[in-house]
Write a structure and sequence with these properties.
alpha/beta, single chain, 5-stranded parallel beta sheet, about 25% helix, 7 helices
């Protein structure tokens, strides 16, 4: 067979952790790489995160490290650029953005990430109705500000966390596990106790999924060193009291005892969904998708970076929920797959 004729131009769609790492690795291999991000700033969701599990390392530190590598590379970074159309053209991929600029790449890496579940869809928790019901990303902003006060400026005597909001939920048609919600709750519970030692913290969970390195240890530390309580059971109802605290009703399913208690802040651990860009580009390129809407890898064991279309590769959470470590490793694997594809006969 004749060698495939390519110019070595690669497009990476998405400037979060996966996109930055994939672009950097491909640049090191000698390819001409264009990184396209729809937001004005690179970083994806990580730029909004205060500390990262399991070692509570500052999120800004990890993001700065990734950005520094990118700045030292020859990657052409385009921010505030939204890809609106995509199609295969022979051996290449044609893209166009909102300004009607056209691009032609020999291969593209979809690193378009995830969106967060809209907690307003779970009306029983009162998000968007009661001021003192917030989401886990909103709590991270409180951590960054260093002020542990409820939105209603109520001192925090007790904080409740609700796991699996929008994940593993048949009513929302989301059957998948978002993987990182449990450990995020553990991390945020410890951070709450660190910033506000007098605050009681209670987590309501379905089951604790501590799949990662040092996750189980952090879970134990939260109980033994920080006094975080874990109650197995889902909250059935949340209502606002006259003093703006939140009354919640639940059942401790381990003991069968119904519970009714007040919290000054209720935090909803919202899960991952395919990003709008992931879904739209997947449709335009006619990529196979999983039941949960994420892009389907060609082989879940050996070739999770490949899609059903030649020249289109996956990196990070475009194909499913991942933590940052797995996302970076997946991005590096995507770069290797692209390299092999462009060099193959």
């Amino acid at each position: 067979m004749e060698n495939k004729i390519t110019s070595g131009n690669i497009g990476v769609i998405g400037g979060g952790v996966a996109g930055i790492e994939a672009a950097f690795q491909l640049d090191k291999m000698g390819y001409s790489v264009t990184l396209i991000e729809k937001e004005k700033e690179l970083g994806g969701h990580v730029k909004d995160w205060f500390q990262l599990f399991p070692n509570r390392r500052p999120g800004d530190e990890v993001l700065s490290q990734l950005k520094e590598k990118l700045q030292q590379s020859g990657v052409d970074v385009k921010t505030a650029t939204h890809i609106t159309n995509a199609r295969q053209n022979g051996n290449g991929i044609d893209l166009s953005d909102q300004q009607k600029n056209n691009y032609n790449f020999d291969a593209i890496v979809l690193a378009s990430g995830f969106d967060l579940f809209d907690a307003r869809l779970k009306e029983e928790y009162g998000y968007g109705i009661y001021r003192n019901v917030i989401t886990s990303p909103e709590l991270e902003k409180m951590f960054k500000s260093g002020q542990m006060v409820a939105p209603s400026e109520k001192p925090l005597k007790r904080v409740g966390f609700v796991h699996c909001v929008g994940s593993r939920d048949e009513k929302c048609n989301n059957h998948h596990c978002s993987r990182v919600c449990c450990i995020t709750a553990v991390k945020q519970a410890i951070e709450t106790r660190t910033l506000s030692p007098e605050t009681e913290v209670i987590c309501f969970y379905m089951d604790m999924r501590m799949f990662g390195q040092n996750y189980e240890e952090l879970y134990r530390e939260s109980q033994e060193s920080w006094g975080v309580r874990y109650i197995r059971g889902r909250i059935s109802e949340a209502a606002e009291n006259a003093d703006k605290s939140i009354q919640i009703k639940a059942e401790d399913t381990l003991t069968g005892i119904p519970l009714k208690l007040n919290v000054d802040l209720l935090v909803l651990l919202i899960g991952m969904l395919p990003s709008e860009d992931t879904s739209q580009l997947g449709k335009k390129l006619m990529l196979n998708t999983e039941k949960n809407g994420f892009i389907m890898g060609k082989d879940p064991h050996c070739h999770s970076n490949l899609t059903n279309k030649e020249g289109v590769f996956l990196a990070g959470t475009s194909c499913g929920p991942m933590n940052i470590t797995d996302t970076i490793n997946h991005a590096r694997a995507a770069a290797l797959e692209v390299d092999q594809y462009l060099k193959q006969n």
